Amino acid sequence: MLIPDDVLYSPDIVDFTIRKNAYYAPLILNNPNLITSHTVADTYVICYVNVNNFTEMMDYMGSDFINSISNVFGLTDRAALEDSGIIQVQDQPYLNLKGNNVLIGFVDTGIDYTQKVFQYEDGSSKIKFIYDQTIPGTPPAGFPLGTEYTNEQINAALLSDAPYEIVPHRDTAGHGTFLASIAAGRAADDYIGAAPDSEIIMVKLKKSYPFYLDNYLVPAKQENAFSSTSVMLGVEYILQKAAELNRPVVICIGLGSNYDSHDGESLLEDYLFNTCSLPGVCTCISVGNESQARHHFFQQITQNDVPVNIDIKTGENAGDIFVIITNKYSDRISVSARSPTGEIISRIPAKAGRTYTTQLVLEPSKISVSYYFPVGGSGNQATIIKIRNATPGIWTIVVYGDIVIDGKINAWLPLTGFVSPTVGFLSFTPYTTITSPAINLGPIRCGAYNSYNNSLYPKSSWGPTRHSPNVPDFVAPGYQVGGYYPTGYGTMDGTSVAAAITSGACALMLQWGIVEGNDLGFSTPIIRTYLIRGCRRSDLIKYPNVQWGYGTLDLMQSFIVMRQL
């Protein structure tokens, strides 16, 4: 469907994803108000519609609505290669692995293609493609939006005195540039990336549409808020380019979200799970930096324990607050709320798809409660509470057990940076703070540690997840790791850094397995197994555990273990 280039950049557009074979799919795809759609992996369909026509589409989807709307993701950033056993593998004469003929793809904030670490000795670029979703123009073939820049165009820009007139792509945040330098940077002075001979595909993600920024109460100053539809398009682009080039590929995702029900059953996570079984593809995801953020509440209850109070401490000028409460499909809950001044919102009966909104009488705050059950994929219940213009003090959400059998109550506040730092649960737990999409069972899930003193990086998210006890898979260096920003050399902390280091290690594994023909079946589960077996472990820690996973990444040890098979 041909549409003008700039239509999908209108603030009045909403994107959402459905399954191609959903019963209601023909009602949406044949609707004259549908602007355009894009099919991914012949299974998922990303749809675009004007916000004024979105209600009609919501009615078609019914209870599957919450599973189809876009989630919003943020960045998980906060002498590492030697500690990970990567330098040893690069220098081992019989291995001599540096990522030759392997691609590393990033869905992130873009890349500063002018940095020397992304250029060969002759000045040409090691970046094969840049897909910039933020620039209307010439999209990749078959894709609905954005502009594609090829290696030839990037090389022409590098030879020009005005490179940005030829390739106007920039990384204003610096996050994507930094991760790419860690995973795939060429040697510069005393610096080298994990897989310096690998080549790069960079996807710069488009910011979420205003509908979702408002729906999730994303702070106005937060620029790095990306929809799950954009991530899905980006991953599909990377996979298509890898297939065209007939090369193995590592996909690095340094993003996370707390906006969903944390059950690992979203359409994006389902899509990522399916891609992870492909030979020649390895996906690495950061687990987030939420363990000490006071953003997770948990309580195990019985029918006799309810009601339960969830108290949220709120500071001055905290703005808006988004809270999601989840419970298992066997249970049903309903909620009421109490403001800091004591105004009570009475218990609201739990009815699927219902939203109740009220303006407080003596406070400027407005509160809404929405119930969704059964949520597609898991069948669980999700209850969303939004407090706009929150009064400072203690807000209390009161949870009632209409039906209590399983009795596990989880609640999450948004990712750090997506809610005021003065907002947190009074009673919080660092457990079960893994962010989406690392909850998914398919990819390699990377936590972070401080390689200088061999301690856990304090903010690295802890497992378990709601359906898996063994997350993260392992930890990689994530404290004061060196790399390149658009402004030059610097350091970064966080699990996205750990995911980038791991992505470089996986590129070396793919070179050994696929490029050199030692095992053409190498895929994410196989590489994860070898990396886990090679992890360094302390005699003082029982493995696996919810902080360290199976230990610390040691690629050289993984190859030693493989030799013993």
Automatic annotation (TrEMBL):
Domain of life: Bacteria
Active site: residue positions: D108, H175, S496
Pfam families: Peptidase_S8
Keywords: Hydrolase, Protease, Serine protease
A single BP term in Gene Ontology: proteolysis
TM spans (from-to): none
Residue ranges constituting the Peptidase S8/S53 domain according to the UniProt record: 99-511
GO molecular function: serine-type endopeptidase activity
UniProt family annotation: Belongs to the peptidase S8 family.
Name of the protein in its database record: S8 family serine peptidase
